[in-house]
Amino acid sequence: MTTPPTKGHLYTPIAHVRGGRAEATKDGWGPNRSRIELCDPRLGPDSLLGLDQVSHIEVVFHFHVDEQEPVETGARHPRHRADWPRVGIFAQRARMRPNRIGLSICRVLGVSGTTIEVEGLDAVDGTPVLDIKPVWSATLPRGELREPAWAQALMANYW
């Protein structure tokens, strides 16, 4: 038995990405520098207190670019490469996800007021940010990571 999706619960952005890239491109995100600027009136500088003590953050965001693009629910060849296997949407990190939620780990360069300066965030200028979490060693994967060769090839020039 499947449970139907919950209706009516919408997330409100707490911040937006400012600066960095204007267009979502496939590769070369490593040196991308941008800012995450809080926009939620409930969140002041105290919301970011202590964040300058971590090297990296996880940024949960909404893939807002090309929202008219059809949602993928099945399998496809990543980047339309027929030499890579067809895999389901949940076996890849594509933006055409059912809820269009993205997740990225980026380096914290600095924190000032309600702004976080970051490097390596693969989100474009204007991207709505839904949440920010510190990366702690205890939250990283435990044990050996396993991934297919096509994913390694896809990510070879991503950062």
Automatic annotation (TrEMBL):
Occurrences of domain TsaA-like (ranges): 11-144
| Coiled-coil boundaries | none
Q: Which GO terms describe its biological process?
A: methylation
Q: Does the keyword S-adenosyl-L-methionine apply?
A: yes
Listed Pfam families: TrmO_N
Keyword terms of this UniProt record: Methyltransferase, S-adenosyl-L-methionine, Transferase
- Entry-linked InterPro entries: TrmO-like_N (IPR023370), YaeB-like (IPR040372), YaeB-like_sf (IPR036413), YaeB_N_sf (IPR036414)
Mention one GO molecular function: methyltransferase activity
The lineage's top-level taxon is: Bacteria
Family of the protein in this entry: Belongs to the tRNA methyltransferase O family.
What protein does this entry describe?
S-adenosylmethionine-dependent methyltransferase
